[in-house]
Amino acid sequence: MKIRNGFVSNSSSSSFLILSKEKIENYKQLLEIFKINIESPLYEMNKNLVQTIYNITEEQDIDYIIENYCSYDESANDKYPTKEEFRNNMKLVYNDYNYFSIEELEKIKNGELFLREGSASDDSGNGYETLLYDLSKKTQKSLASVMNLTFNKWKKVINLL
Fold first, then answer.
1. For each of the chain's 161 residues, which pLDDT tens digit applies?
2. According to the 3-state scheme, what is the secondary structure of the chain?
3. How many angstroms separate the Cα of 51 from the Cα of each of 29, 67, 103, 151?
4. What pTM does this model have?
5. 86 exposed, middle or buried (CB, 10 Å; 0-12, 13-18, 19+)?
6. Is residue 136 part of a domain?
7. Has residue 97 been placed in a domain?
8. Would you say 116 and 57 are in contact if contact means Cβ atoms under 8 Å apart?
9. CB-facing half-sphere around the CA of 128: CA atoms within 13 A
């Protein structure tokens, strides 16, 4: 039996999720998603940041979500659904893990959407990972929001050059 209520927080890391319509198999696909211009004077820095994002994330599937974020009970005591009941009913997954809509969960299950999960830490020894972590902590925003803000700000800087 595995029961999880909420998330375990760690003051030195910030978790994030990337949901995409295409399977992300290498960092170059993320460069395209973030629309990083090779002509930019900040290209190498952006490329290294995107490589870090790719390297600190792993592709996950619906079974991973159920296993790690849903409260289930295989002893069939009816207090919690079983893993199979979760797998057959995305509404149960949504009730336990509501970061995605029921439709998005169905698409993850059916291979129509792809999920990567990652975490940035301030003590990894990787400066780009620390930068992502520090930005999320200083702005009190999710790491996903920080990544979007960061790339948008860099685009504005590039336009000024």
1. 344 444 444 447 777 788 888 899 999 998 888 787 888 888 888 888 889 989 999 999 999 988 888 887 776 566 778 888 888 888 888 887 777 888 888 999 999 999 888 888 888 888 888 887 777 677 665 555 555 555 555 444 444 43
2. CECCCCCCCCCCEEEEEEEECCCCCCHHHHHHHCCCCCCCCCHHHHHHHHHHHHHCEEEECHHHHHHHHCCECCCCCCCCCCHHHHHHCHHHHHHHCCCCCHHHHHHHHCCCCEEEEEEEECCCCCHHHHHHHHHHHHHCCCHHHHHHHHHHHHHHHHHHC
3. 10, 28, 30, 14
4. 0.71
5. buried
6. yes
7. yes
8. yes
9. 15
Task: Show the tokens assigned to 98.
Answer: 């509501």
Cβ-based burial of 54 (10 A; exposed 0-12, middle 13-18, buried ≥19): buried
Q: Is residue 36 part of a domain?
A: yes
Helix axes of 43-55 and 127-139: crossing angle, nearest 10 degrees: 90
Structure tokens at 86: 């979760």
Q: Residue 29 sits in which domain range?
A: 13-160
In a domain, 1, yes or no: no
Name the domain count of the chain: 1
